Amino acid sequence: MRLAWLHPDCLNAGWLEPNDHAVYVFDDQQIDADGWGIKRILFVYETLLELPVEIHRGPTVEILATLARSCEGIVTVDSPDPWLRGRIAELRQLASVEVKPSPVFVELDGAVPRNHTGDLKRFSRYWAKAERKLLA
Asked: What's the average model confidence in pLDDT over 37-45?
């Protein structure tokens, strides 16, 4: 059995295997660092209630390292978030960690030029580009 770590950048069960033990950790350090509000916390919590996942609160690395002792290793999904990447690096020092590539939500037509990536920082601008592909 693998310990499957769900985090804010992978709030779905589509990548889990049948015998995975899925876990999500609400880490106060991450919540404070990212400035989460109550609405975001509630959104994540309500999303998790729809998934086969065990929910914890506390230091992410400590909790996952403890749970991983009874598993074959930890599996998670990659993230561009520096905080999450830091936790993955810490976990790799304590356990076997497999990082799966992030699933692509939608393939946008054409490449987004490097100097125009700011155009997709706002969800409404991203959605204007993505909805044509998704709703076609």
From this structure: 96
